């Protein structure tokens, strides 16, 4: 976990899983701007650290870069040990997905089973594991959003 600190925040932790250069980064920046301590999680810690530096500098916020492989239970557990050490996870945004590397479009019949299984593991199992590990210890508190092709799905069970 890489810590970037600029100021104290009054709100809880916003954990953004699956932070890349577009949507995830924008979401993290917005929560930092709103005063949350932000944990950004993805596989590439080097890139995450650059994002954390950028957000912390621009928003004067606390931003933590944490490596995670959403398809691996141990990685999710270890990542959320770091997230939970920051405080109560008030917001969890799951934005992770797996896209196999391909130089040309693939037809449905050409999709490899291992690629399909990895995609399922990241999109379904990963969301479950992150919600389970980062979930609120108090029932009826917190929110989780999952990005999908139909847009965000927000489950808000605030007090």
Number of domains: 1
Report the total helices: 4
Give the strand order, joined by hyphens, for the main sheet: 1-4-3-2-5-6-7
Give the distance, in angstroms, between the N- and C-terminal Cα atoms. Answer: 31 Å
Strand content: 15-25%
Major sheet size, sense and barrel closure: 7 strands, mixed
CATH class: Alpha Beta
Structural class: alpha/beta
Helix-residue proportion: 25-40%
Pfam families: adh_short (PF00106)
What key phrases describe this protein's structure?
seven-stranded mixed sheet; Rossmann fold; disordered N terminus; 159 residues; alpha/beta; globular; 21% strand; single chain
Would you give an account of this structure?
- The chain has 159 residues and is α/β, with parallel strands linked by helices.
- It has a single domain (2-150), classed as NAD(P)-binding Rossmann-like Domain (Rossmann fold), CATH 3.40.50.720.
- The chain has helices at residues 23-33, 45-59, 73-84, 113-134; strands at 2-4, 13-17, 37-42, 63-67, 89-94, 143-146, 153-156.
- It has a seven-stranded mixed β-sheet, sandwiched between helices.
- The two termini are 31 Å apart.
- InterPro entries: NAD(P)-bd_dom_sf, SDR_fam.
Entry summary:
This protein is an alpha/beta fold. It is about 40% helix and about 20% strand.
Blueprint (SSEs and pairs):
Blueprint: E1 2-4, E2 13-17, H1 23-33, E3 37-42, H2 45-59, E4 63-67, H3 73-84, E5 89-94, H4 113-134, E6 143-146, E7 153-156
Parallel strand pairs: 2-3, 2-5, 3-4, 5-6
Antiparallel strand pairs: 1-4, 6-7
Helix pairs in contact: 1-2, 3-4
């Amino acid at each position: 976990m890489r810590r970037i600190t600029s100021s104290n925040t009054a709100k809880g932790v916003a954990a953004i899983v699956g932070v890349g250069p577009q949507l995830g980064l924008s979401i993290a920046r917005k929560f930092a701007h709103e005063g949350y301590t932000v944990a950004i999680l993805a596989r590439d810690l080097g890139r995450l650290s650059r994002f954390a530096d950028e957000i912390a500098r621009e928003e004067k916020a606390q931003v933590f870069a944490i490596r995670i492989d959403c398809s691996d239970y141990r990685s999710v557990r270890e990542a959320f040990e770091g997230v939970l050490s920051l405080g109560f996870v008030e917001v969890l945004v799951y934005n992770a997905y797996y896209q196999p590397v391909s130089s040309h479009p693939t037809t449905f019949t050409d999709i490899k089973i291992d690629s399909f299984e990895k995609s399922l593991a990241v999109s379904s199992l990963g969301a479950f594991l992150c919600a389970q590990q980062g979930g609120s210890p108090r029932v009826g508190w917190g929110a989780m959003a999952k990005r999908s092709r139909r847009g965000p799905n927000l489950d808000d069970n605030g007090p």
